[in-house]
Structure formats: structure tokens, C-alpha cells
């Protein structure tokens, strides 16, 4: 039995070792990927429910790993956050998203996701100003999406960075609204332009009247605070109709369009035309 125990122990160690090595390898690969153009941005359309037209696109990063294929963000964003690689990665996404969006009809916006770590220190202001200057993108065509975890860190630096963005004319959205601990108090701490209602609430509207009431309450609250609302994860026409009925301003989801590579956007961008 003693022997068994030791074998089990050894086996476990080896297993852990493999996981650690694998993680280390992925970190090395990610560092390389940022420097060598292996990252790519997919764009998912967002629709205005009032005009029934595309209002903009959310930039969603993808990693085309030479051996592993497409690695989803959920597998490398947390790693990038832990190691600090999110700072150069995020800067790359911001620059690239602004550069590409500058070529779209000028009523279309681009939304970029930010991790808390990108906003700490005093590096973000210059990065943001640089991205706008290099691309020539009008500031009000850029939206920064932050989750409430960004405000969870009681930090003057972070609030300053977000206020600086607003002063430049950049829009700021609260992402994944409703999933955290105390979303409501964050609405008081920072003047967001937009609330993105989390997919979990949107999806459950199909079978739960309570969820419909909650989403409607969020939309009414946002209206009173002069914020717009984007429903995420809209996968059916029924959901789209329900959201329109309760006054949601914008929607995003597979029913309206999947995230797509730039090479597949041409027709949609063309159809948006100049307004
Ligand atoms: P998110 O910001 O909440 O982005 C929405 C996610 O939902 C995207 O997943 C999108 O593909 C997916 N989605 C959109 N419509 C639907 C739908 O109708 N049904 C379902 N089931 N899913 C839908 P994705 O691209 O895998 O990104 C996952 C998360 O990774 C994002 O969640 C965001 O938190 C993070 N992320 C992506 N790109 C970046 C980035 O450039 N920087 C940072 N910091 N985080 C990023
Ligand atoms: Ca987002
Ligand atoms: Ca979201
Ligand atoms: Ca999310």
C-alpha cells in the first residue's frame, strides 16, 4: 500500500509537471505571437434596434497558433493577464482595431475590450492617444469595454485613465453587466456611456418572465442615466423582438452575425455605405 501511495504521488507530480511545462510553453509561444503577427482580430457586428442597421463592431482577438490552431481568448487572455503580456497584447489590439476601423464608413464604431492591468500605472493615456493619432480615427468612434472588475480595484489611476478617455471623446462601456457583485454601485462611480447586458440574462429571457423583468429594469435604469444598452448573445429572432419591445437600443449575437475575420467583412462594410 505504501508503494502504491508513492507511485500515486509520483504520478501526480509528473502530471502537475506536465501542466506547468505546458503553461510555460504557452507563455513563451504567446510572447512570440505578439511580436510575430500571429494574433488576429475578428469583428462582430452590433446592430441598432432603432434603425435596423449596423452601428459598429466589437474587436475580439484570436490567436492562430502554428501547431495548436485557433486558440480561443478564454485560453490565453487569463494567461496574458497573469504574466503581464496583456499590456503589449492589448496595445496591439487597440492599435490594430483603430487602424482597421479608420477605413470603415465614418458612422461605424469599434469597441475594444480592456483588462484592468492595461489601465494601471500611467501608461494607458499615451497608448490611447497614440492609437488615435496613428490611425486618424475620430475619438467618438472608439468604445472601450471594461467589466466591473476594473472598478473593483479601488484605484485612482484606473479612474483617471477612464476619465482621460472620456475627456478625449472616447466612449466607455460596462461589459457583462449583471454578472458581478455590485454592478449598481459601479454605475455611480463612473459615467459609462453604455451598458452591455450579459448573455446569460439575455438568453434566459426566452423561458423566464423574471429575466425579462430584470432586463427591462436595466434598460429603464440605463435610460434614466442617459446610457445606451447593448444586449449580448442574441441568438434568435424571438429574443431580438423581445429586446426591441422593451426598449433596448442595440443588439449583438449569433442571430445577427458571428465574429468574422477582416477578409470576410467586405460585403457587410460595403452595405453599410457612407451615411
Ligand atoms: P466578451 O467581451 O463578453 O465578448 C463576447 C463573447 O461572446 C465573444 O467570445 C463572442 O464571440 C461571444 N458571442 C457573441 N455572440 C454570441 C452569441 O450569440 N452566443 C454565444 N454563445 N456567444 C456569443 P470570444 O470571442 O471567445 O471572447 C471571449 C472573451 O474574451 C470576451 O468576452 C472578452 O472578455 C475576452 N476578449 C476577447 N478579445 C479580447 C481582447 O482583445 N482583450 C481583452 N482584454 N479581452 C478580450
Ligand atoms: Ca466585450
Ligand atoms: Ca460581454
Ligand atoms: Ca465575457
From TrEMBL:
Residues 23-273 form the EAL domain. It comes from the Eukaryota. Keywords: Membrane, Transmembrane, Transmembrane helix. This is Uncharacterized signaling protein CC_0091. It comes from Durusdinium trenchii. The chain holds residues 646 to 920 of 929 of the full protein.
Amino acid at each position: 500500500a505504501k508503494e502504491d501511495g508513492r507511485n500515486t504521488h509520483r504520478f501526480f507530480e509528473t502530471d502537475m509537471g506536465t501542466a506547468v511545462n505546458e503553461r510555460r510553453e504557452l507563455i513563451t509561444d504567446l510572447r512570440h505571437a505578439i511580436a510575430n503577427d500571429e494574433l488576429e482580430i475578428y469583428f462582430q457586428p452590433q446592430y441598432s434596434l432603432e434603425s435596423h442597421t449596423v452601428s459598429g463592431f466589437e474587436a475580439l482577438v484570436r490567436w492562430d497558433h502554428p501547431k495548436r490552431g485557433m486558440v480561443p481568448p478564454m485560453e490565453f487572455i487569463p494567461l496574458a493577464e497573469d504574466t503581464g503580456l496583456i499590456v503589449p497584447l492589448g496595445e496591439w489590439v487597440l492599435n490594430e482595431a483603430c487602424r482597421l476601423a479608420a477605413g470603415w464608413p465614418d458612422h461605424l464604431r469599434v469597441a475594444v475590450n480592456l483588462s484592468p492591468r492595461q489601465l494601471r500605472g500611467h501608461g494607458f493615456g499615451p497608448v490611447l492617444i497614440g492609437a488615435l493619432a496613428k490611425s486618424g480615427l475620430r475619438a467618438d468612434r472608439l468604445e472601450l469595454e471594461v467589466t466591473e472588475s476594473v472598478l473593483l480595484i479601488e484605484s485612482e489611476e484606473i479612474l483617471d485613465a477612464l476619465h482621460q478617455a472620456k475627456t478625449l471623446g472616447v466612449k466607455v462601456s460596462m461589459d457583462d453587466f449583471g454578472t458581478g457583485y455590485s454592478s449598481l454601485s459601479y454605475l455611480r462611480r463612473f459615467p459609462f456611456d453604455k451598458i452591455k447586458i450579459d448573455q446569460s440574462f439575455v438568453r434566459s429571457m426566452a423561458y423566464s418572465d423574471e429575466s425579462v423583468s430584470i432586463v427591462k429594469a436595466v434598460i429603464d435604469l440605463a435610460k434614466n442615466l442617459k446610457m445606451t444598452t447593448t444586449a449580448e448573445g442574441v441568438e434568435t429572432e424571438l429574443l431580438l423582438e423581445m429586446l426591441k419591445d422593451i426598449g433596448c437600443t442595440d443588439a449583438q449575437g449569433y442571430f445577427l452575425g458571428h465574429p468574422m475575420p477582416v477578409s470576410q467583412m467586405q460585403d457587410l462594410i460595403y452595405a453599410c455605405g457612407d451615411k
